[in-house]
Amino acid sequence: MSEPDLDIRTVDLADAGELLTLRRAAFVSEAQIYGDPSIPPLTQTFDELREDLVAEGVITLGAWRGHRLVGSIRVLIEESKATLGRLAVAPDLQGQGIGTRLLLAILPLLPEDISEVWVFTGRDSVQNLALYEKHGYTHQHDKTAGDLTFAYLRKILGGDTDPDGADRHVAAAER
What we know:
With 175 residues, the chain is an alpha+beta fold. Helix content is 32%, strand content 33%.
């Protein structure tokens, strides 16, 4: 029997509890890398998550396999810049391409005037850094917040096609 297809769509308020559970499960490994169980994805409250899901300029996509939420990604849109965050995949499904599919799925949903996409991750998160670099994000700088050092990566969008091959104009016209 084959695996059900992955259904990627916007997360809404009805999915908030499942999203909170997914993120907490997915970010435990990050907390272990840094020896810090108080990283923001693990301390965000249910009410804060619900507020974020309806915040202006925020898009959160989820990946479902059947009825199970198995991945998510969040993007904040500010003028000509988009900032990705909270890319999460269920621990038992990591390494199967779900994160990559979410990373690629968000680009066609961005407004046409977005010229750059930023992402940040823990400086010691080697797998995350490799994923972003594989898809055209380049390291720009590091920033320390408390005991954590974050690496900031950027991808410049330009022309009709981004470096991953997603035609943004066609995707936008189909929305």
